[in-house]
Amino acid sequence: MRCIAFVFVLALAFTANFAQGVKSNKSDATKQLYALFDVEWEHNLKNSPTFASSQGDRRYNDKWKDNSLSAFAKRHRHNIGTLLKIEKIDRSKLSISDKLNYDLFKKDYEQSIERYKFKGYLLPINQRGGIQTAQQTARFIPLKTVKDYEDWLTRLNNFPTRMDQTIALMREGMKQKVLWAKKVLERVPAQIDGHIVSSPEKSPFYKTFSKFPKSFSAAEKLRLQTKAKKTIAARVIPEYRKLKIFFVKEYLPASFSKAGIWQQPMGKQYYAFLARSYTTTDMTPKEIHEKGLSEVARIRAEMERIKTKSGFKGDLKAFFQFLRTDKRFYYQTPEALLTGYRAIAKRIDPEVPKVIKTMPRMPYGVIPIPAQIAPDTTTAYYNRPAADGSRPGYYYVNLYKPETRPKWEMMALSIHEAVPGHHLQIALQQELGEVPNFRKFGGFTAFTEGWGLYSESLGEDMGLYSDPYDKFGQLTYEMWRAVRLVVDTGLHEFKWSRQKAIDYFTDNAPKAKNDIVNEIDRYISMPGQALAYKIGELKIKELRAKASQSLGKKFDLREFHDVVLLSGAVPLDILERNINDWIRKQKKSK
Asked: Residue 153 belongs to what domain range?
């Protein structure tokens, strides 16, 4: 899932929601605030047409996002203007809940304006995605009518403009030294090669036209397929040939030989901004690094305890090697691995009510990560449901090289990505009642990923870690996030080499080598994002301990989780305020 400090995760704007609570008896300030929410939501949908389409809003189905340099500058000017509009609204005239809406909305624009100066938009491609994975757009767009397919063909016909804009951003990035490390970009040419095919039928973009709704006539199917072949042959495949030449001959040679963002202009300031932004704290990279070191030491002690409990006689390094290599811990085929993930999901689902009071209505599915990107991406990820209910949430699992994906990690991973982790939290947030849409579909990474990691510990409360290897898997995943604090700051603040980061990870967690390498490369091309998990989890655990100690027998874990979840994803200081208010109210009640 896409996670940054607080950005709009653009989704379908249900116009009626913007009028929620704004009646004639509301203050002028409240009316102004919600009118601004309305205008900005529409503006953001219009400027992110493919995401709007993916949520069921068909108004922009034939358009790509404008990624020209002038468009980024225009959006930046718009954000400055919107911030001025926000500041003209009299916050003192708002209700308590709308003061929070005001503050979060304002914070988003302030951070967007600050982020612009670091020019991250000049990095449109890395090993995890970009125009070389643009075919995935179709997987999230409802294609139900002939017009839907015609609109998609119009998008494909305009693909050369999208490619030209992407290359222009990269050229400007070369000029201004806003680049990624060569080691991660070396993965991209093979991804581009997947589009340079001998016939349009072999293009990943043609898959959309291999299956149609049953209501389509044979003549319509043939017409759309014929048009698709011509469009892909003339307007798509040649563009990838052009990209491959530019990427290999110009862009890759210009990329950095070392790993960290510190090599970019204002790189040190950029990383400090990202650390604050992703964690929603004022922690410095140095403070985060030291917190990571202390957490690694604590979790290693826990690992030693579980290793002894399992009956293993060697040291921790030998236990790691045992877990990495013993065939009993691995499936041998992708099909068996997928079946195993789905079985674990079914085992978890009925246990969730033990720890969660309010459940979402939206279901989720467990499906494979697309084969084209599986070798270069992480173990799993989650994609949120469509805002209009047309698509469930999806827990994506990596089936590439199943012999390297241990069974002992699958329980904690599934809890994190599905329930009670990401799917439960995000689906609940989308189903919140009187909350503006920018909060339903936006979020703070420290909260969202902090909840996901915290959820892994709930496997204990749900009785899902009876097997010591599953429990060790949970500790491995907690260690993984602690290691992130060390290696992310190591790479981007302390100028660690890629190999030093890989070695540190390998020494402290039994994850497979290919996973470790993919993870380190992820941190290289997503600086700061990985810091949010452990910082958020530690805050939720701290607040749970505080509530339990303060309330004693009156503490109810399910009620505590309602308080955490039912305001949506908020900064950690707001979460702490919510929990403190709840503790005070519980103490006053009989």
From this structure: 7-260
